[in-house]
Amino acid sequence: MALRDYEALTFDCYGTLIDWETGLYEALTPLLLRAGKDMPKDAALAAFAERESAQQAATPDMIYADLLTEVHRQLAEAWGVAPDAAEDARFGASVGDWPAFPDTVQALRYLKQHYKLVILSNVDRTSFAASNTRLGVTFDAIYTAQDIGSYKPDPRNFAYLIARLAEQGIGKEKILHTAQSLFHDHVPANAVGLASAWIDRRHDAPGWGATAPVSEPVRYDYRFTSLEGLAEAHRAGG
Question: What is residue 20's DSSP assignment?
Fold first, then answer.
């Protein structure tokens, strides 16, 4: 299908629209300084990713802000730092401070003219509301892990998305799932039959950053290195 044949773009937010790696690393900096860690950014993010994905699998109904708080506590313990509950909580509440990518707002405003825009995010409603003010558009629907009771890549999140959009008359063949994370989004989206567009924000960086690695083959229907790239492809005819 051409880009113009889809009716809804369903978005991962963090890593795709919001620069969560910059936000995470800045929020982790006080802990790294206390630990005396001269740790490269990608190494710190990989340590976070390992614990985040494990905690999401272990406690799928935990509110994301609380989950971040717990992951921060685990990192402090792993790095030999004395516990600080207030610092853990500040990290858990940091989502609203994470910046949007420079191209996000302009691209979303263009795409809003042509598609329904839907969020499928691994955060809680309060955390997403804090980020939403940075995104410059009103989304047609917002589905969070808090609403669903599980975290991507759990297939329940995508089943929930497909069912809710079907209630609005949008079949899954008209949905293009748009995301950066292969682990959280593309593998499970394709498993349930959704087309996907990879926004490869890490195209110029090694490793997996703040997402868990993927060992299996991954299929996606489109690849762009920015959200503006998707918008430009639509302008060019899709």
Answer: H
